[in-house]
Amino acid sequence: MNPVRILLADDHTVMRNGLRLLLERQPHLEVIGEAADGRQAVALSESANPDVVVMDIAMPNLNGIEATRQIVNRNPRTAIAILSMHSDESYVIRALKAGARAYLLKDSAEADLLAAVRALTEGKSFFSPAISKILVEDYMRQLESRGAEDTYELLTTREREILQLLAEGRTNKEVANMLNLSLYTVETHRTHILQKLNLHSVPELILYAVRKGIIA
Amino acid sequence: MEPEEAKDAVVFKRSVQPLQWGAQVVLLASFGGMLGLMLFAGVDSLRALRQVQSRNVQIRQTFLLRNRALEEIRSALYQSGTFTRDYLLERDASRAETYRASLQKVRGEMDAALERYSRSLDAGEEAPFQALQARIADYWKLLDPIFRWDAGGKLARTDAFMHQELFPRRATTLEIADRIASVNEQELSNGDERLKDIFDRFRYRLGLMLAITLGVGALLALATTRHILRLARDADLRYRQVTLAQGKLKELSASLVEAQEQERRAISRELHDEVGQSLSALLMELGNLGAVAPGDADLRSHVESIRKLAESSVNVVRNMALLLRPSMLDDLGLVPALQWQAREISKRTGMAVTVDAETVADDLPEDLKTCIYRVVQEALHNCARHAFARSVRIQVVQESGRIRLTVLDDGQGFDSTHTRGLGLLGMEERVTHLGGRFHLQSQPGHGARLRIEIPLVARAVGAIA
């Protein structure tokens, strides 16, 4: 099995060193490069073509979210894990919309990073438990204060199944293969799910799944 | 900058004097004096006119009275001649006696006229009047003998008496009467002269009075005008000072707000990016340390306590940074920052806050973004702290050329025409500085509605002013 090739993007040298040390203790992980800002990260992704990019948000020249958007646009197969100080959901949703598939908090990086890289190599999404906790709590509070009904109850069993797979980061095609359904059926289910939950995009759907505790 | 400051210093040093006591007394005396002069002139004129009029009437009446008396004397003289002749020529004794009685009556009338005339006698008339009286006495004395004449005597002497004695004597008497009449006329014209004199004196006095009044009035008007102009200039100066000071205060307050915002942003960034990141790196390295020395239980417990410390520090730093100025405002735009703020206040107070801002762009101008964020922050603070609202609705709408914000709460409300705290003042100041409008409406028991509207294009004007 080929080692997972990882690019680190963070403007803090100490942080990069720490991350490299952490990752390289694992035999199947290889850090192939380090970038000190967003522009360098985009350029290195282009030239070195890493499997995973570990990306900070607050970086000079080009911030991590913009860099993520550019990298994913050029190569959708590159899995990006945001590693940030920010725990607010507005950052999470921005990062997801830009194409990131994992969101980690820096203060729990040491505990979560390896799990996140593993999830990404398996084609799944990953969120720091701290982030999941915040998102779930906010969601519960909103439901409570609005007195709104839990829309999850509106979904059929098949729809819940598909919701989980999509939220884990699977494509429509992968879901169709796994469940032995046609691509068209999966797409219809997806539309229904988004409508029932009043969501507008897959990133919002992922966020929803995290809030509901469907994925971690 | 320096010359401008110097100029301002001069402007402020020239302070404005209040109206002094001296000036008040002078003004009062001048106006009072002028009014007094005018009153005096008026009363004096009326008095002089009445005097002239009464003198005139008196002179005319005296003249007419005396003229009539003279006329009576004259006609009595003529009648006496006629009655005398009739008496002399009449043969019938009883009829002659009637003529004699008529003659006596005429004499009585003449004496009465003389008596009347003598009462209003002037100095220049005394000599001719005495002559007239003497002549008239002579005249009557001349007539005395004829009543003693018998019929024969009358017949023989009448003709000669009439032509040689009576008629000449009557003629000279009439002459004297004429002389007195001319003196009387002279007296009339003298009276006119005197009247003219009085009138001239009066005219002179009136003219003088008017001239003085006019002079004093002109002086007074001049002084008053100068004083009023000075007051107006002072008022204008004061107004400009106040406007200048107000403008400067506004500028100062705006630049203070701006400076505060910059400071907050800098500190927030520093805390978040430097301190927070360093603490995160520290955590990371602690993990690596634990991995390097896995067996040592003592070391591991130390590492664990350091990790706990660092973790709580990261949280403290993160919260401090967000409270100072949420990084979303700069990284992601206004709406994520508002949503974060709404979530935070919900979490802390249990108040339900909804943000409706779908039309708002991410790339709003910096000052506008900050202004709206801070206004919402203050409004939410008020809702939670003072209004005890249960739910708040925040609506931001971006239209062509302007942005509108509405904050609606169901709190206990207040009398928005009276109660205005410092926080509200600060909000209003921020909004008007960007050329926007600020409107807060509330009634006790009916919640509150805050509406602001800020232009998107003309903001540069507000920023300069």
Plain-language structure description:
The complex is a heterodimer of chains A (216) and B (465). Chain A is of the alpha/beta class. Chain A folds into 2 domains: 130 residues, 3-Layer(aba) Sandwich (Rossmann fold), CATH 3.40.50.2300; 64 residues, Winged helix-like DNA-binding domain superfamily/Winged helix DNA-binding domain (Arc Repressor Mutant, subunit A). Chain A is built from 10 helices and 6 strands. Chain A has a 6-stranded parallel sheet with strand order 2-1-3-4-5-6, with helices on both faces. The two termini of chain A are 27 Å apart. Helix content of chain B is 77%, strand content 8%. Chain B has a 5-stranded mixed sheet, covered by helices on one side. Chain B is rod-shaped and about 205 Å long. Classes of the chains: A alpha/beta (216), B alpha+beta (465).
Question: Secondary structure elements and their pairing?
Answer:
The complex is a heterodimer of chains A (216) and B (465).
Chain A: E1 4-9, H1 13-24, E2 29-35, H2 38-48, E3 52-55, H3 64-74, E4 79-84, H4 89-98, E5 102-105, H5 109-121, E6 126-127, H6 129-146, H7 157-167, H8 172-179, H9 183-197, H10 202-212
Parallel strand pairs in A: 1-2, 1-3, 3-4, 4-5, 5-6
Chain B: H1 2-13, H2 21-89, H3 93-119, H4 126-143, H5 151-292, H6 297-324, H7 327-331, H8 334-349, E1 352-356, H9 366-387, E2 391-399, E3 402-409, H10 422-433, E4 437-442, E5 448-455, H11 459-464
Please sum up the structure shown.
With 216 residues, chain A is of the alpha/beta class. Helices cover 56% and strands 13% of the residues of chain A. Chain A contains 10 helices and 6 strands; from the N terminus they run βαβαβαβαβαβααααα.
